[in-house]
Amino acid sequence: MNKKKAKLHYKNNSYDIIEEGNFVICAISGKEIPLKDLNYWNVELQEAYYSPLEVNKRFKSLKNKG
């Protein structure tokens, strides 16, 4: 099985596939996220997150900037 990074456009409750692939990269941890397991992303930042832990880290970093 060839692994290829997908390019997505994140929407509120879904995403559009811009370039076909099997996974995306978590913006915080750098971990590969298989598309079938992708549950967390930020529409405004257009970022994917591996788990709620990474979501929380991003939220805290944004909160501290403001």
Question: Helical region count?
Answer: 1
- Contiguous low-pLDDT stretches (5 residues minimum) are none
* β-sheet strand percentage: 25-35%
Q: How many DSSP-defined strands?
A: 6
Described by strand count, sense and barrel closure, the largest sheet is: 2 strands, antiparallel
Secondary-structure-based class equals alpha+beta
Number of domains: 1
Strand line-up across the major sheet: 1-2
Question: Per the principal axes of the C-alpha atoms, what is the gross shape?
Answer: globular
> Helices and strands, in N-to-C order?
EEEEEEH
Overall average pLDDT: 96
Summary of the model, kept short:
The protein has one domain (7-65). It has one helix and six strands. It has one helix at 52-65, and strands at 7-10, 15-19, 23-25, 32-34, 40-42, 47-49.
How would you characterize the overall build of this protein?
- The chain is of the alpha+beta class.
- It has one domain (7-65).
- The protein has one helix at 52-65; strands at 7-10, 15-19, 23-25, 32-34, 40-42, 47-49.
- Strands 1-2 form a two-stranded antiparallel ribbon. A two-stranded antiparallel sheet has the order 3-4.
- The longest helix is centred in the last third of the chain and has 14 residues, at 52-65.
- The protein is globular and about 40 Å long.
- The protein starts with 6 loop residues before the first strand and ends with a helix.
- The relative contact order is 0.19.
